[in-house]
Amino acid sequence: MENSQKNFQIRVMIAEDIAAAMKLKNLVGWNQIEADWERFLRIEPAGCFVAEMNHKIVGTGIAINYENKVGWIGMIITHPDHRGKGIGSALLYTVKAYLSANNVRTQKLDATPMGFSLYKRLGFITEYDIERRLCVEAKGVSYSNVTSLDKVSLEELYAFDALTFGVRRDRVLFNLVTENPELSACYIDNAQKICGYILARPGQKYFQIGPWIADTFENASNLLNFILFRLKGKQIIMDIPSVNRQAIKLCDSHHFEFQRGFIRMYEGLNAHPDYPQKIYAISGPEKG
């Protein structure tokens, strides 16, 4: 897709673009690392795009298609020197067109305050607010009844997660678990059923917790304690739905300070909403 008036071209991203995408991401100060870009390309290779101007990458955007039911829009980045040239809008339209071509009727994203007005003009509707919380030095905490995810089947994890996220996201969870098994755990009840789980991964500046989903406050607390024990002394961020007051309480008790906000938005039919009261931390703004 070429825009002759504005002198840039949008094309599908390839592995060789990752180094340039990282430089662009670093300019805006986001937390992703090369492993995140590699994961996007594994999960949705035809849904990752770059904008190119004079043979240099000046923008990125990715989509993740969840079961042809919900499409996620993320990593919409424009080089600071090229803002105002329509690059970000063109990438957004390209990602949306990709999802629409796959008959995805609900498109979602987590907007920054800077991008909120654009998405609102395009017809996206606010669903709820998200708070990014930061812990500058994790403290080791004891935990109980938490077990490694290799003790349960991934199919059981996928099914449990879908009850809260609204649709299955098998590919995302598979990659997150297999990349960082030591930072993946679940809470199992007496009937050997999953009633909560937590994942974490490294980032450019911080380790990031998420997804973190639990049926009860007690389960959620033990899962968080597991991660804090594993990441003792590290800096950690997580993005939590503001409506989950129990998650807010846990963050406050462990001195996770408010850093900034996002706004979860959707366009089209919100036929598969998530259940934020059980979401203690989302996977990340780029993938829901």
Description:
It is a single chain. The protein is α+β, with helices and mostly antiparallel strands. It has 2 domains: 2-104, Gcn5-related N-acetyltransferase (GNAT) (Aminopeptidase); 132-281, 3-Layer(aba) Sandwich (Aminopeptidase), CATH 3.40.630. It is 31% helix and 33% strand. It is built from 8 helices and 14 strands. Strands 1, 2, 3, 4, 5, 6, 7, 8, 9, 10, 11, 12, 13 and 14 form a 14-stranded mixed sheet that branches. A hairpin with a 2-residue loop joins strand 3 and strand 4. The longest helix is centred in the N-terminal third of the chain and has 15 residues, at 87-101. The protein is globular and about 60 Å long.
Number of domains: 2
* Helicity, as a percent range: 25-40%
Q: Average pLDDT, to the nearest integer?
A: 95
CATH fold call of the largest domain: Aminopeptidase
Q: Mind describing the biggest β-sheet? A: 14 strands, mixed
N-to-C order of helices and strands: EEHHEEEHEHEEHHEEEHEHEE
By secondary-structure content and strand pairing, the structural class works out as alpha+beta
In short:
This protein has 288 residues and is α+β, with helices and mostly antiparallel strands. The chain is built from eight helices and 14 strands.
Could you give the topology of this structure?
Blueprint: E1 2-3, E2 8-12, H1 18-28, H2 34-43, E3 48-53, E4 56-66, E5 70-78, H3 87-101, E6 106-111, H4 113-121, E7 125-135, E8 146-148, H5 154-165, H6 170-179, E9 184-188, E10 194-201, E11 207-214, H7 217-230, E12 236-241, H8 245-253, E13 257-268, E14 279-281
Parallel strand pairs: 5-6, 11-12
Antiparallel strand pairs: 1-2, 2-3, 3-4, 4-5, 6-13, 7-12, 7-13, 8-9, 9-10, 10-11, 11-14
